[in-house]
Amino acid sequence: MSNDALDPAEASAEYGLPDPSDVLALDSLLAPDELALRQRIRDFTDQQIRPDIADWYEQGVFPMHLPAQLGELGVLGMHLEGYGCPGRSAVEYGLAAMELEAGDSGIRTFVSVQGSLAMSAIHKWGSEDQKQEWLPRMAAGEVIGCFALTEPTAGSDPSSMTTAARRDGTGEDAGWVLDGAKRWIGLASVADVMVVWARTDDGVRGFLVPAGTEGVTATPIGRKLSMRASIQCDVTFDGVRLGPEALLPGARGLSGPFSCLNEARYGIAWGAMGAARDSYEAALRYSMERLQFGKPLSGYQLTQEKLVNMLVEVQKGTMLALHLGRLKDSGRLRPEQISLAKLNNVREAITVAREARTILGGNGITLDYSPLRHAANLESVRTYEGTDEVHTLILGQHITGLPAFR
């Protein structure tokens, strides 16, 4: 095989042939403006993420210059309307999530924590003053937010949270005192504002806690084998005093945080397919170039079977994500549908990434190639915003009518 041979996608583009990696012609289901947006995000990923992601991952650092660039790109709070938010469709947000996670799950996770969790909470449940104060700057990437729900002993079961807020004083001017602990809180150590969920006498409520508030400590979690180009923290609240303006007035009970989690889970269904597609494409390119026993790896039946199995799952998962996006844009998307897509797409993406690594052989364990990095990251994606077990139980309750959580 000559060194200047085109890869299949490039050959298809040059000669006007169908993309061999889009067997189902899924691109034909996208409108021109959706394709244009996808290309813009793909170009950003190629130029701003791929060149440095291996170093960020190896060093365990999140690139703090990216938030402003992502704000300029228009992907922060992308699906939200007003207050400086882009107001794009659910499908467009999904396409952006897919392209960013093709770069790295940690970068897509930042966009998800900022937009689908923190900004969504303020947009859905905040007062007008809170929205005006925070959302425009968050959309621009000037201010970073985080979403503090999970606790050291309350992950899959947030109803057992122990973080509590009690009234501080009486009357309309009464504030709050917040005590407790949270764990695995993305971006907490660099956040300008935390959305914190806590028990009160009026059920679970949300609070906005600005950075620098006395009594708040955020400690990054180290020694991670996954999501290394990202930040997750332990957070403690020790007698934190908040004014009445800190309360998110519209959220009462767990329906508040759950509504935000569903926004994040929707984006994950798309994002996981970005990691899977990138893993497949890395393996395909390698197999076309790597010679073994006198011919390319791609010319062997076992390799072709692996490539086909990967492609089938990427195509199916992308079609599922697109279907969800159309349902969401038409106001018909249901929580159990999100659970099905999150469960399937992340599970299959891990399988694709691991299979892609086998085609790369020993080279696949280095950061010169993306599949094993994607596989490691996806272990976190598989756990957060609902484990496989939680989404299985959600679907089980839906199809049987019987809750089996306890």
Automatic annotation (TrEMBL):
Reactions the enzyme catalyzes: glutaryl-CoA + oxidized [electron-transfer flavoprotein] + 2 H(+) = (2E)-butenoyl-CoA + reduced [electron-transfer flavoprotein] + CO2
Keywords assigned: FAD, Flavoprotein, Oxidoreductase, Transit peptide
Domain Acyl-CoA oxidase/dehydrogenase middle: residue ranges: 146-240
EC number annotated for this UniProt entry: 1.3.8.6
Tagged with keyword Transit peptide: yes
UniProt xrefs under InterPro entries: Acyl-CoA_DH_CS (IPR006089), Acyl-CoA_Oxase/DH_mid-dom (IPR006091), Acyl-CoA_Oxase/DH_mid-dom_sf (IPR046373), AcylCo_DH-like_C (IPR036250), AcylCo_DH/oxidase_C (IPR009075), AcylCoA_DH/ox_N (IPR013786), AcylCoA_DH/ox_N_sf (IPR037069), AcylCoA_DH/oxidase_NM_dom_sf (IPR009100)
Pathway given in the UniProt record: Amino-acid metabolism; lysine degradation; Amino-acid metabolism; tryptophan metabolism
Pfam families for this protein: Acyl-CoA_dh_1, Acyl-CoA_dh_M, Acyl-CoA_dh_N
Domain Acyl-CoA dehydrogenase/oxidase C-terminal: 254-399
Domain Acyl-CoA dehydrogenase/oxidase N-terminal: 32-142
A GO biological-process term: fatty-acyl-CoA biosynthetic process
Cofactor(s), by name: FAD
PANTHER family: GLUTARYL-COA DEHYDROGENASE, MITOCHONDRIAL
Name listed for the protein in its UniProt record: glutaryl-CoA dehydrogenase (ETF)
Organism, as annotated: Arthrobacter globiformis (strain ATCC 8010 / DSM 20124 / JCM 1332 / NBRC 12137 / NCIMB 8907 / NRRL B-2979 / 168)
Origin organism lineage: Bacteria, Bacillati, Actinomycetota, Actinomycetes, Micrococcales
Gene that encodes the chain: gcdH
